[in-house]
Each structure stands twice: as structure tokens, then as C-alpha cells.
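Following up on my earlier thread - several people asked me to post the actual chain instead of describing it. Fair enough. Here it is, all 293 residues.
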Amino acid sequence: MRVFVTGATGFIGSAVVKELLNAGHQVLGLARSEQGAEALIAAGAEVQRGSLDDLDSLKKGATASDAVIHLAFIHDFSDYAGNCAKDRMAIEAIGDALAGTDRPFIITGGTLLLPSGQLASEDTPPDLNRPNAIRGVAEQVALSFVPKGVRVSIIRLPPTNHGEGDHGFIAELARVAKSTGVSAYPGDGLNRWAATHRLDTAKLYLLALEKGTAGSIFHAVAEEGIPIKEIAEAIGKKLGIPTASKTAEHFGWLAIAIGIDNPIESVKTREQLGWTPVHASLISDIEAGVYTK
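Reply from S.P.:
Thanks for posting it. Predicted structure:
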């Protein structure tokens, strides 16, 4: 298949592009910069110039392809609501382009949008009443295209997709630890985060593309829930600094997520797609120095 990938040059997207190419698919990657275009060409992909703001470029890429994987999202929390709106408009533009084709359209969601404090499954809907959960509306927008003849499926990513090159939540937790001299956790630190190595996540996108059915929701979760205190202790041990409980203010922008209890299961995902994570665990990556260089 020729697959149009948004977010193709990102941390997860670049791994997805490689996974697709290794499986024999062609890739058309969205690039908004010359640097991004060069990276895609070097990887063996074709380039679609554009951005999430350029809906015509999204429609053009979707129309020219046999399937679409939508990974791009603007991670600017100063205008989170605005960026969620842009994401929904991008999904609508791509969905309109694919209407009536029965082509696969995989969109990306997040497990942090699910209800906190319970083991959530693929059948658990987003809790749209929670702060910052507005992105969950994108799932509803995407699924509305199923009766319009689009093979929509959703992959929910956990708070951390870890591995070399990660600049997300765990990288920020380690950065704060290095800058303050203490590896911290909120409260008692018993709240949990699900986690997956990005290469296992990339494999899941390939399986969802090849085996996913319309309306399916998948969880890219290898580890159901690691206590934040355990993560902080691993970082502290690697850095040789103490571990302690701190208030939300200590974590800077990470405060928006650091206290959420987000245990997630992926039983249905594994059964339906035959997905078996094989790469390093989060703690193993921390112990290997991935986040403390």
C-alpha cells in the first residue's frame, strides 16, 4: 500500500515510517520544512509538502494514497484548545477525502484522556469532563466517518513512548531532576503511567493498518501501569541524587500530567492484532542511561 503519514518526521512517526517501508509499503510523508523533507527522502519515503494548517495538502496526500496514518499534533500547551481544534479539522479534511473508499484511516489518541484511577480498556470512552481532555473529541469526529465508508481505527498512546531520542514526559522528568538535584514524584507517588517502547508502538501501527477493522480502538500499551515513584527512583539512582515527594509547582509544565493515575490494559489489542511488545521496558531504558546522558 501507499500510505500517507502525518507526523512522519516525529519521534514515533519516523519509527512508523521505517516499519512501513521494511514491510514493503510505500510511504508519502507530510513535511512542513526542508529538513523534514530531506529526512523523509533519506529514509526512502516520498514527500508531501504541507502542514496541519494546510488542509488542501492533507486532502491531496490522502487522495493520492491507499491509506492514511495521522500522527501529527501540535504539542503547544499554551494553546491546547486551539491545537485540538486544528487536529479535528485535519481529521475532517482527511475523512472527507477518503469518504466512500473503504481505505484505512488510523488516527492517534491518548490514554491520558481516559478516566483516571481505573484500569481502562479499549472500550473505555474518553472522559471529556476532565481538564485538557478536549482532544478526546477527535475520536468521535474520526469514528463519524465509519458510516461514510472510511475504515477508521484509533490508536491510543500511553503517556510515555520511550526510547532513544525521546523528548516527552520522562525526558522532562529527568531534566527537572538534573536541574534541581532531586528526582521527584507527586504526593505518595503511587499513581501509575502506562508505557511502551516506541519501536513496539510503530509495529502496532503497521498491524492496525494491515489487520484493523472499521471502528476499532487499540491501545499501544506494553506496561499497564508503572508507579511514578518507581520511575523517579530509577532516575534518581542513575543520576546519583535523592528521591523525594514534591508539590506540582516543582514539575513546571509537567504538572498538567504528573499526578494522573493512568493504568491501561491492551488485552483486546493483543488478541485482535497479534501484537506482542518485545523491546525494552521503561525502567530498563532509564537504567541504560537513555534519559540521563
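The first strand starts at residue 2 and ends at 6. That should answer part of your original question.
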